Amino acid sequence: MAIDKPVFTRGDVEIIRREQLYKRFFRVEKVFLRHRLFGGGWGKEIGRELFVRGEAVAVVLYDPEHDLIGMVEQFRVGAMDEINGPWCYEVVAGMLEPGESPEEVARRELIEEANVEPCRMEYICNYLSSPGGSDEKLHLFCGLCDLSQAGGVYGLPEEGEDIRVHVFTAGDVFAELYSGAFNNAAALICLQWLQANRPRLRTQMTGQE
């Protein structure tokens, strides 16, 4: 049985006013609004702080011929207190700029962060990272490529990027999937998708299973 869509839509929200609280690299607004209630009628005016992040793209690299997965490692200030430290294994990612499609961003970021050009891209899904307080939306891809010679340190120094590319066997990655090594949503979702689709991708690209 199909899952019904929510009854309410954007038209069931009235924006009363917005206040800009902070604006530098990121932006924070306070949005005053009211919305329809499940029991009928409209709720009272409420204020909600919103971290304005916009749309982003993330790509997991997979080499179906050699059964290899490419990940990037970089410092993340939000992970300062993590048990494994603030350097995280992630998928390649970047922000969507005006006029760009998600796939264009994916291909651009793969060159900048990993020096890899994929031979084929597969769209995985999109998701909201934290809709209770942020408008950030991520588009996820799998980039199929040759990782046999991949590796090195990349990124844009003028943006403070220092990104190391790692190549792991698929078996090693999936054995550590829930160990805490990949402790961010984009990496976990991409890797879970890849684990489920790996046999299909290997058959389609190489005839192997």
UniProtKB/TrEMBL annotation:
Keywords: Hydrolase, Magnesium, Metal-binding. Residues 52-195 form the Nudix hydrolase domain. It comes from Cellvibrio japonicus (strain Ueda107). It holds the Pfam family NUDIX. Its cofactor is Mg(2+). This is ADP-ribose pyrophosphatase. Acts on ADP-mannose and ADP-glucose as well as ADP-ribose. Prevents glycogen biosynthesis. The reaction catalyzed by this enzyme is a limiting step of the gluconeogenic process. A motif (Nudix box) lies at residues 94-116. SUPFAM superfamilies: Nudix. InterPro entries: NDP_pyrophosphatase, NUDIX_hydrolase-like_dom_sf, NUDIX_hydrolase_CS, NUDIX_hydrolase_dom.
